[in-house]
Amino acid sequence: MLERGHNFARYKGILSKPGVLDYPELNRKELIPEEELFHADTKRSFRGVPMVLTDRQNLHPGKIDSDNFREHIVGALGDNVREESGQLVAEFTIYDRETSRRIDSGELSQLSIARTMIPVEKNGSHEGKEYQVIQTNIRGNHVALTPRGRAGKDARVLQRTDSKEDKMAVVSYRADSDGKDHDIPSEVAKDIEILKSKKEELSQSAKEKDDKIKDLEEKIKTLSSESGKDSNKEIEDLKREFETLKALSQTAKQEADAWKKKAEELQTLKPEELDKAVKERAKLIEQGKAIVGDSEDFSGLSNAQIKDKIISKALPYPSDMRSDSITDVVREAQFSAAIRLSSALATKNPNGIGTKERGDSKKDYRLEMHNWKGDQK
Question: Mean pLDDT throughout 276-299?
Fold first, then answer.
């Protein structure tokens, strides 16, 4: 495992979930809709926001900015803000030793998101609970650690994570190309195994087709020695099948060679090239989460397979397109088009659900309403 150059504590937590929140000080209840909470812009806005402490001894002025952050920050939220099982979750780092001690002891167990939003006055009911306002255009400012938050146990610290294996751990990997051991990130080692497995799968497919081609050659030879109209027709059918199989076998061999080459390239990359490869994969997974869904698991998939999932969701191939005709060039072109289309759609509708905004469209600030004012069940 890579040795960390710090002793900061890392945690995973539930930031929020869709539902109705009670604001007794405002004499109303407000709905946080699923469409707004899990909107891509909402998730992006919470990336890297400060973690602050709020309790009886630590009251803060509300909005955290470049003028007052030094007084209040005890940590920071990570970049992987995502939806998991109907909840908005993320990892976060705590810099302050005393704060992490209080979290570990259970004293600070709940979380509260500080945000700006545009309230839409609209009566309704969600899961049997009535509300008078819908929160839209949610944008994060910070996340507070508190003994008792407004959302209760629906927004809480889940677990400490810094004792787990670092995903960027370096492992020794023996390359097939030169027989030498190379130090590479464990995630890259996993990718190499995926590529090699794909190569073996395609090689086996090519072998099976070659075996069938030999059988067809024997059948054609046998039928050619016979005479008759029926034999001639069967020979023509077999020849067509023979040519098709030859083409498929050749394609499988070419793809197998390509996968083998990719695996060998990964095995012998220079440190700066490895860093680039890891960053490119991280970006690809981020794109996949944004387009396919946060709950999608991309572990164990090659980059090409992840791109195929994105394509299938955003811009599928024509229905009459044969899978064996999808080359790397075709895939890259379709993937680029899928990303452009998704970006265009996100730009066209950046504000989540299409509810009508309040007349003055004034932003409301939920920046210091962290602690529960009523009875908590």
Answer: 82
What mean pLDDT, rounded, does the chain reach? 76
Same domain, 119 and 57: yes
Task: Give mean pLDDT, residues 340-367.
Answer: 54
Say if strands 50-53 and 129-146 run parallel, antiparallel, or are unpaired: parallel
Q: Would you say 232 and 220 are in contact if contact means Cβ atoms under 8 Å apart?
A: no
Domain enclosing residue 152, as ranges: 9-166+354-366
Q: Residue 224: in which H helix or E strand, if any?
A: helix 186-224
Q: Which neighbouring-strand residues pair with 22?
A: 29
Burial of 162 from C-beta contacts in 10 A (0-12 / 13-18 / 19+): middle
For residues 91 and 310, what is the distance between their CA atoms, to the nearest angstrom? 25
* 48 and 162, same domain (yes or no): yes
Picking from 267, 290, 308, the residue at the C-terminal end of a domain is: 267
**The two structure tokens encoding residue 155:** 């927004």
Nearest to 26 by CA among 332, 366, 375: 366
Which is it for strands 28-32 and 129-146: parallel, antiparallel or unpaired? parallel
Q: Residue 284 burial (CB < 10 Å; 0-12/13-18/19+)?
A: middle
**Cβ neighbours of 44 (radius 10 Å):** 13
Residue 13 lies in a domain: yes
> DSSP characters for 59-103?
---S---TTTHHHHEEEEE-S--EEETTEEEEEEEE--HHHHHHH
Residue 302's alpha-carbon distances to 29, 58, 185, 191, 312, in angstroms, are 46, 47, 16, 6, 15
C-alpha torsion angle, residues 275, 281, 283, 287 (rounded to 10): 180
Q: Any idea which residue has 């099948």 for tokens?
A: 241
Burial of 322 (0-12, 13-18, 19+ CB in 10 A): exposed
- Which has more confidence, 100 or 5? 100
Q: What is the pLDDT of residue 275?
A: 63
